[in-house]
């Protein structure tokens, strides 16, 4: 069984939000890590979908501490976002699945993602400038 665990940027009903998450996105991380830890304990394959470097480092440390094999989970990242981080994670021996928006509504999807998380715009602009 596979479990996808994504640190999302969507607007949610306030009752489901982590306190302070709207002002400090890292406030989500302890809850996210607890979820990943439960999945590891159940032997589920976990897909960790995030570009948060601190969270990625914490998942790697958790996997090592719990002796979770590198092939028991993967990281997922969007193409063009945090490519140096993606390369670092892959160089550590972890699988990284790269997502590419495509299809009839690729533009709508991409626009919504940028509206939901304007920081992505900075990642994309930096990636374009470096090329």
TrEMBL record:
Pfam families in UniProt: Pro_dh
Keywords for this protein: Oxidoreductase
Domain Proline dehydrogenase: 30-119
PANTHER family: PROLINE DEHYDROGENASE 1, MITOCHONDRIAL, PROLINE OXIDASE
Protein name per UniProt: Proline dehydrogenase family protein
Species name: Pantoea phytobeneficialis
């Amino acid at each position: 069984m596979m479990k996808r665990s994504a640190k999302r940027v969507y607007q949610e009903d306030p009752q489901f939000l982590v306190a302070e998450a709207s002002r400090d996105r890292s406030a989500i991380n302890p809850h996210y890590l607890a979820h990943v830890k439960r999945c590891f304990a159940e032997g589920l394959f976990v897909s960790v979908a995030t570009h948060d470097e601190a969270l990625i480092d914490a998942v790697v440390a958790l996997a090592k501490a719990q002796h979770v094999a590198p092939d028991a989970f993967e990281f997922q990242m969007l193409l063009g976002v945090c490519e140096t981080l993606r390369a670092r994670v892959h160089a550590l021996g972890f699988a990284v699945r790269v997502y590419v928006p495509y299809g009839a509504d690729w533009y709508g999807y991409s626009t919504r993602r940028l509206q939901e998380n304007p920081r992505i715009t900075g990642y994309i602009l930096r990636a374009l400038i470096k090329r």
